[in-house]
Every structure is written in structure tokens, then in C-alpha cells.
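Task: sequence design from structure.
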């Protein structure tokens, strides 16, 4: 198996291996989709993982401790 693979790699670098247009497009699409999947899997790791809804818009129900101190 290793000998066959080595020979095919040599032919590829020499230029004796040709691809059909369809095969070339399939390889390009595969690489793009693989890149998207890897990117989506690594995206949470770049910004940290948090578990919350994340819709804090600044509205506060009731008075906070700082507002009570200002009134007193």
C-alpha cells in the first residue's frame, strides 16, 4: 500500500496525474465545506463559552443599591 501511494504521489508532482473537471470541482467544494465545519467548531473557542441568553439591554426592574444610596 505504501509503495502504491508513493508512486502516485511522484506522478502527481511530475504532472502525470490528471483530474476530470467534475472531480476538481468536487474536491474544491469538499475543501470549502470542511473549512466551514472546522471554523464553526472552533468559533466558540475564540470567544469563550458562556451559557446565558445575552439579551441584557440595560433595563432594570426595581431600584438598585446605587440608586438607593443616591436618594438617601
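Answer:
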Amino acid at each position: 500500500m505504501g509503495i502504491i501511494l508513493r508512486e502516485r504521489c511522484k506522478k502527481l508532482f511530475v504532472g502525470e496525474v490528471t483530474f476530470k473537471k467534475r472531480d476538481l470541482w468536487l474536491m474544491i467544494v469538499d475543501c470549502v465545506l470542511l473549512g466551514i465545519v472546522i471554523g464553526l467548531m472552533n468559533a466558540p473557542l475564540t470567544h469563550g463559552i458562556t451559557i446565558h441568553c445575552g439579551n441584557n439591554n440595560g433595563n432594570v426592574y426595581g431600584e438598585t443599591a446605587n440608586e438607593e444610596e443616591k436618594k438617601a
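The longest helix spans residues 21-47.
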